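Reviewer 2 asked us to include a model.

Predict the structure of this chain.
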Amino acid sequence: MVHTDFRRLFALQDPFNSRYFRGRVLFAREIDRNALLVGDFGGVTEPLKVGHADGRLMADIVWTDNVAVILISKRLIVALRKAGFSGWTTYPVDLETNEGIHPEYSGLTITGRSGPIDNSRGQWICRDDEPGRFLRGLYFDEQSWDGTDFFVPQRTIYPLITQPVRDCLHRLEVKNVRCDQLAEVLRSELVVRNTPQVP
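Predicted model (structure tokens):
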């Protein structure tokens, strides 16, 4: 039996901080938007074009108006490669800011995998500050995880990372990102209902 400490695994989350630059993705019709995050480029041969949607401050992680398109800086790419983290790669983007094309960013693709999310292992709770129910915990079958540092559960686009990656982001003082322990991740009942379930 494989034991996985879900307190040492984290969800890479958008903090929705309006001060930081947010991209606006300009998709060609033939591109599957969600597929970019999980490495199915669908024959994309040119850099993905990303414009400006909101915010001004540039950070090592740039979120966009599409949850599956996450940009990371050259500085962060160098650090991740130096650390030898597994389960990720990049694709080229043209990020346009007020100063023109910013050459220091690439798109993040996650190649690591685990099995589907198993909602039966979570705990339903209510919050004082928001109506409705929330499911606490993001779990999957431990034996289905390939052990990579970056991975995505089957049939989702949730970017997950290991403790060493989270610690690396902390050491680099990477801004504009939130890393939530999988054991503490909260999802609304509406989100849970619209996420594919374990067969």
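Residues 135 and 151 are 21 Å apart (CA to CA). The chain has a mean pLDDT of 90. We have added this to the supplementary material.
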